[in-house]
Backbone:
């Protein structure tokens, strides 16, 4: 249920109306048009003044649907880009390069090691992928696809946030 705030119009001698509320009763206000000090009547005399009603939801600076859309777009973009960075990270390798290095360093016969590496490099035997390699390839393909999808979602969120922000900035200001 919306509560309506009542504001009253206090006439100034310069014929301008000064907007006052019941909390100002018994005090004084300055006219924005001429700068003259005006006494605000006591609360019991407020009913003699003209009233102006306004809805509190229409106040300047209130959140609109565009504000919510801009926030949702920015949040979607941030979450999607963060998730893309995590999902798209390089999966664990199928072999451990540190172990290969340690085996090479531990080898005492350099000639045999050199001959093995030459044989391996020039081998023409093709082999199918090992199960671990095939799993790694599937995970990498899936992670790459997910990362790209999340990047697209993040981009769409960014576009929505920017478009809503521009609409907020270019919207005519209510007086």
Residues:
């Amino acid at each position: 249920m919306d509560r309506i705030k009542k504001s009253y119009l206090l006439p100034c001698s310069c014929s301008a109306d000064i907007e006052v509320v019941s909390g100002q009763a018994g005090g004084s206000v300055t006219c924005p048009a001429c700068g003259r000090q005006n006494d605000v009547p006591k609360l019991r005399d407020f009913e003699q003044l003209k009233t102006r009603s306004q809805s509190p939801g229409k106040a300047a600076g209130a959140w609109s649907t565009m504000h919510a859309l801009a926030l949702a777009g920015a949040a979607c973009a941030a979450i999607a880009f963060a998730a893309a960075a995590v999902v798209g990270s390089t999966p664990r390798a199928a072999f451990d390069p540190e172990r290969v290095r340690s085996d090479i360093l531990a080898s005492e016969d350099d000639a045999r090691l050199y001959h093995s590496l030459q044989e391996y490099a020039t081998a023409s035997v093709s082999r199918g992928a090992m199960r671990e390699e095939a799993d790694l390839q599937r995970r990498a393909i899936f992670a790459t696809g997910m990362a790209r999808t999340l990047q697209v979602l993040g981009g769409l969120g960014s576009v929505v946030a920017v478009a809503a922000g521009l609409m907020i900035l270019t919207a005519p200001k209510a007086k």
About this structure: Strands lie at 5-11, 17-20, 28-30, 37-39, 50-54. The radius of gyration is 37 Å.
